[in-house]
Design a protein that fits this description.
Elements: E1 7-13, E2 18-24, E3 29-37, E4 44-50, E5 54-60, H1 65-76, E6 92-97, E7 108-109, H2 112-120, H3 129-142, E8 148-152, H4 162-165, H5 171-177, H6 186-200, E9 209-214, E10 218-224, E11 227-231, H7 253-260, H8 265-273, H9 277-281, H10 289-298, H11 302-326, E12 331-335, H12 336-341, H13 343-351, H14 362-366, E13 374-375, E14 385-387, H15 392-404
Parallel strand pairs: 1-6, 6-8, 9-12, 12-14
Antiparallel strand pairs: 1-2, 2-3, 3-4, 4-5, 7-8, 9-10, 10-11, 13-14
Helix pairs in contact: 1-3, 6-15, 10-11
The structure holds adenosine-5'-diphosphate (ADP).
Length: about 400
């Protein structure tokens, strides 16, 4: 542990929000966390938690990301609420970036070129990269003297071979626009891959697992010898399994069909990203897994049952496909809000994986919630299933630490 680099601030900025976690890397403990919401709007909202205080403050004045981080820093050094005696005790800042394209395969230290690189990728991530740039610029204005590091959600997936990431489109068009699979949730898949290596006692370079990050957004990855071989999300986070409000995989001709019916690109995008998935199929008026399971298992909402079946079906399709691609699988790992907490969804999934050697253990499955880590499959399973809680913020802090100490 370097004496110079110890406290790392992890920032996850959107266009109107800034989430933060301050880590002490000596023991990887959280010193403070919270967020500023409604940045640039009337009545911004500040939420803060440290060992000394927990509060929600509204309205807060945060016209931009610089003001938002100033609010955070003021609380961090407040003698009654905070955890630092001076803001100079923050040694580095790690920024979560959703899209790093094919260019960013590892975390990098921020400079003008990197900001420009993230800007060039805005067409690929119009909802995420602009806010992230605002976050970086705002944080660099408040903390100009420390290293800033960007950690990309796409980076861990960039070990995929062309046979995984190529789409069957004319090469000139695909090349011109960078149309290919990139994958997302890489920081989470990376974190649980490292953790799985520790828990299973298998060295990273020999570890074959299927990692399932199942939350509002979900993705499943095949990890071979510790590196991503394939992943379910695509050029954008819309592809793959059914999600809370995202449709996941479907015939791409549906988009052309809808366009020919007169729907605009924005309307189609909205339909597929915000009005699809569980929300569209579940007949509960919600995208939330808890409500879907309650409705599906109550026996009174057949559409919810069908939606749950459709969701689990999409998980099984990827897990089965990745099992075949990997040849040998040491474990299936579940994480994310659904993977960590929903024993109903996990139970329904495990019930369908018997063909791969998974034997469910209902009593064991029921025990896993709120951060509990361990094996949920029965002892006799030839393919074990584990719940390993993810921690994307800690992974960003570790990556930032690694770069900042170089
Ligand atoms: P995001 O992709 O927004 O980070 P999360 O990983 O927080 O999402 O996952 C949110 C999903 O997890 C929701 O569908 C929610 O219903 C589900 N979830 C969270 N807690 C529970 C729980 N205790 N039981 C069942 N499902 C849960």
């Amino acid at each position: 542990m370097s004496d110079n680099i110890r406290r790392i601030l992890v920032v996850n900025a959107g266009s109107s929000s800034l989430k933060f976690t301050l880590f002490d890397m000596q023991n990887e403990s959280v010193l403070a966390k919270g967020q500023v919401e409604r940045i640039g709007m009337d009545g911004s909202l500040f939420t803060f938690e440290s060992a000394k205080a927990k509060f929600k403050q509204a309205p807060t004045v945060a016209p931009d990301h610089t003001a938002a981080l100033n609010t955070v820093c003021a609380a961090l050094v407040d003698p009654e609420k905070g955890c630092l005696s001076s803001i100079t005790e923050i040694n580095a800042v790690g920024h979560r970036i959703v899209h790093g394209g094919a260019k960013y395969t590892t975390p990098v230290r921020v400079d003008e070129t990197v900001i420009e690189g993230i800007r060039e990728l805005i067409p690929m991530a119009p909802l995420h990269n602009p806010g992230a740039i605002q976050g970086i610029v705002g944080c660099m204005a408040v903390l100009p003297d420390v290293p800033h590091v960007t950690v990309f959600d796409t980076a861990f997936h960039q070990t995929m071979p062309p046979e995984s990431y190529l789409y069957g489109l004319p090469k000139d068009i695909a090349g011109k626009y960078g149309i290919r699979k990139y994958g997302f949730h890489g920081t989470s898949h990376h974190f649980i891959t490292v953790r799985a290596s520790e828990v299973l006692g298998i060295p990273l370079d020999k570890l074959n697992i299927i990692t399932c990050h199942l939350g509002n957004g979900s993705s499943i990855s095949a990890v071979k010898n510790g590196k991503v071989l394939d992943t379910s999300m695509g050029m954008t986070p819309l592809a793959g399994v059914l999600m809370g409000t995202r449709c996941g995989d479907m015939d791409p001709a549906v988009v052309v069909f809808l366009a020919k019916q007169g729907y605009t690109p924005d309307q189609i995008n909205d339909m597929m990203n915000k009005k699809g998935g569980i929300l569209a199929l579940g007949n509960t008026g919600s995208s939330d897994m808890r409500e879907l399971c309650d409705a599906a298992l109550s026996g009174t909402n057949p559409e919810a049952k069908t939606a749950l079946d459709r969701l689990i079906h999409s998980y099984v399709m990827y897990i089965g496909g990745y099992y075949a691609l990997l040849g040998r699988v040491d474990a299936i790992i579940l994480t994310g809000g659904i993977g960590e907490n929903s024993y109903e969804a996990r139970g329904a999934l495990l019930d369908r994986l018997g063909g791969l050697g998974v034997i469910p253990d209902d009593a064991r499955n029921r025990e896993f919630r709120f951060g509990k880590e361990g094996r949920i499959s029965a002892d006799g399973s030839t393919l074990p299933v584990y719940v390993l809680p993810t921690n994307e913020e800690l992974m960003i802090a570790r990556e930032t630490y690694g770069i900042a100490c170089k």
